[in-house]
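quick one, two chains, predict together pls
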Amino acid sequence: MSRTRKIIYAVVMLFALFVVIGGKFPAFGRHFVAGEPPGRVVANLYRMSELERFREEIPVRPPAPEGDPQQADVLTLGDSFFNSTLESPLFAQALAGRTGLKVCNLQSTSFFEPQSYPLSFLESIHYRGDKKRVLILESVELSVPGRGETYNGSFSASGNKLDALAFRVLKNSDVEYFFKNNVVVHPLLKRLKNVRFESFGVVDKSIGAYSRQPGMLFYGRDLDFAAQKRTDAMLDATADKIAELSKTLRERYHLELIYLVIPNKYSVYHDLVRDGYRYDQYIPRLCEKLTQRGVRNVDAYSLYRGSVKPGSPLLYYMSDTHYTPLGKMLLVDACARMLGAKSYRQGADF
Amino acid sequence: MNFNSIEYLLFIPLVFLCLKLGGERLRWLVLLGASFYFYLTLKHLYLLVALLAVALVSYACGLALAACASERGKRAVFWSGVAANLMVLVALKYLPFLEKNLNALCAGAGLHLAVPETRVFVSIGVSYFVFQAISYLIDLYLEVEEKPERHLGYFLLYLSFFPKLLQGPIERAGDLLPQLRAKWRFDEDNFRAGLLQFGWGMFKKAVVADRLALYVNTVYGDPHAYSGLPLLAATYLYAFQLYYDFSGYTDMALGSARMLNIRLTQNFNTPYLARSVADFWRRWHVSFSRWILDYIFKPLQMRLRDWGNLGTATALLVTFLVSGIWHGASWCFVIWGGLHGVYLAASVLYKPLQKKIHKRLGVEKSKLLARWQTAVTFHLVCFAWIFFRSATAADALYVVSHLFAGVSGVGDLLASHGNTDLAIAAGSLLVVWGVGMVRERSALGRDFHAAPAPLRIAVYLALAAGVLLFNMDSNAGFLYFNF
C-alpha cells in the first residue's frame, strides 16, 4: 500500500474520532462549530436547510433577569415562543409593559421540559399558592396532543438520569450534529444542499415545504401535524386533560389557568404552499371545547388568520418557526384583554 | 444505528482504528465490543440480553453435545437447546399475536377466558440470531460440524457480528467461524471492493427504494382510497422497493464485512429473472431459503418420502407456512407464506405434465418460453407481495379485489410527489437495471477491479455524486428490520 493511501486512511480514521469527541464533548467541539453572528441568531429553518435563498439573521435581545414567582401577579410558562427574544422582549416582559402587572416567566435549565410537566415543575421550585394568581400556559400547536398526555403526570428524576446516561453513550444525535456543523464538513454540506435545491428543488428532510412568494420555509413536523386529521373524540380527550390540569392548579396552587395555543406557522400560512394539506381548524375546535369546560383560552389561530392579508406584514419569520414581534404583540394584547387589568395601557411602547 | 446513517459512516472507521490499536490478539474483542455497541444503539437493552441468553444456551448445548456419548443424551440436549432458543423468539416476537388470537378464539367459542396481553417488543435481529443458533445446534447434532466452538468470545461474535446482526445473511458456523478466527491483516483490495459494494447498496436503498416508497406508502397507507391501476402500479413498485431495499441492505452488510476481510453469503441473484417460484427462492434471500430448505423442508420430505410427489408438495406447503410465520406475527404473512407453499406444491404436482406439454409443443429450449415463465413467476410473486405489504388481511383482500377496477387516479399518484421525484425514480431504476446488466454480461462487471484506473475513479465519483445528490435524506429504516 502506498504511503499516500496510508495517510488517507489514517486521516479518515482520525477525523471520525475527532467528530465523535467533538460531538460527545461540547466544550471541545464548540471551538470547531460554525458560530452565530454576534447579537443575532440565524433563523432555525434556515439553519436546517442551509439554503442561501432563505438566509435570515434575526437580531436578538439579551435575556431578561429571572423574576420571583411569589412576587408576581401573573406567571407565564411555555416553550420557545414564550422564551424567545427575537427582535423583542420576552412575552412576559411585553405583557407586563402592556398591563402594568408584575409578570414572571417561569424557566428552567435544570428541569426537563417544565412546560410539559407544570405540576411537577411547580413542586420542584417549591411554589407556594399563597395568593390567587394567573398562569398563562403556552404550547405550540404541534405539541398540544403530546403535552395533553403529560400535563397531569409527574416527571421522574431517576428516569431522567438514565435517559441522560443513555443519551450520552448511545444516542448519537450530538455526534451527527457536530459532523454536519463542524468547520470542515459544514461548508461542503451547505454547498451540496444549495446545489440540490437549485437543481432539483430538493430541501432538507426537516423542512416540510417552502414557498417562493413570499419566500418561506415550513417545518417538516408542522406538515406532519397537518397531515393527521383529528376527530372530535381526540380533541375531547385533550380538552379533558387540560381541564383536569386547570382544576388541579386552582385547588393546589390558587392558579387561574389561561391556555394559549400558538399556531404552527404552516397552519397560518398553508395557503402559500401549492397542493398543501388543508387546515382542520384544530385550534378553534380545541378552544371551543376548552370554553365548554370552563378553561379560559385564547384562540390565537382565528386572531392570526384575521390579520393575514395579501401584502400584510408577516406574523412569522420567513425562515424561522417563531413569530415576529407583530405576531407576539397580537397575542400579548389578547392576553392583556383577557386579564382585564385596570392598568392595561393600550399602545404602550416597549 | 442504520447502515445509511452518519453514525454508521463514523462507526466503521472507528472500528478500523480500534482494530489497528488492538492488534491481532484483541481483534475478536474489538469486533465483539463494536457489535454489542451497534446493537445497543437500538436502545432496547433486552435485545442484548436475549442475544446473550441465546448465545450462552447454544454455546453450552454445543459443548454438551460434544461431551455426550449416548444418542439419547444428545437428543435431549439438542431439543432442549432448540426449545430454549425458540422460546426466546416466541417471547419477543409472537406472544402478543398468540394471546390476541387465543382471546379471539375463546370469545368466538363463548368462553369467558381472557389471557392478559403482554406488551409488544421490538425484535430487530432476534429471528436472525436465533435461526443462526439453531443451525449451529443442528449442524453439531447431525455432525455436519464436527467440533463445537470452545471460545465463548468467538461464539458470541459468530452470532452478533454487526454487519449481519440485524437482517442477516443467516450464516452457518462452518462458513463464518473460520473467517473470524483467521489471522487478520488489512487487505486493500477487499477494502476497496467492500467500500464499492457498500456505496452501491447505499444507492439502491437511499436513492431507489426510499423514493419508490413515496408512491407505495401513499397507496398502501390507505388502500381503500384507491382502486384499479394505482393499486396495480403500487404493487409493482413495491416489488422493486422491497428488492432494492433488502438487496441494498445486503450489499451494505456484505460490503462492511468485506472491508474487514470477511465474506458473507450472497443473499440475492436477480430474483425477478427467475423462471419458476422454486427458482425465485434460489435467488431471493438465499441464506434464509437455504436454512428452511435444509432444516425444515428436507427432514420433512424424508419423513413423507413414502407419499411420493404428494409428500414433497406437503413438505413444501408446511415449510413455506413456517417461512410466513418467521417473517412476522400476522395473518398476512401466514397467507403470504401459504401462497408460496401452494405455488411450489402445485409446481411439483404439475411438473411432469408441464414437461410433456413443452416436449409436445417443441418449446423446451425456446427463449420465448423462458421469458413467458419469467413473466408468470414475477406476477405470481407480486401477487403474494400484496399480502406481504398490506397492513391487514382485509386491506390485502380489498387490493386483490380492486386491482382491475378502473384506470383513473394513476396520474395523480405519480404526480403526487412532484415531477422531480418521478424523474429521479425512473432514472435511478434505469441505472440499477443497466448496472445489473453490465455486471451480469460483461467481464468488466464481474471483475471491476481489473478495470483501468480512470474508469474506476469515474464510477466511484458517479456513485458518490448519485448518492449525495439524489438520496432521499430520509434515514428510513430497512423493511426487513421488521422480520
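Residues 435 and 445 of chain B are 8 Å apart (CA to CA).
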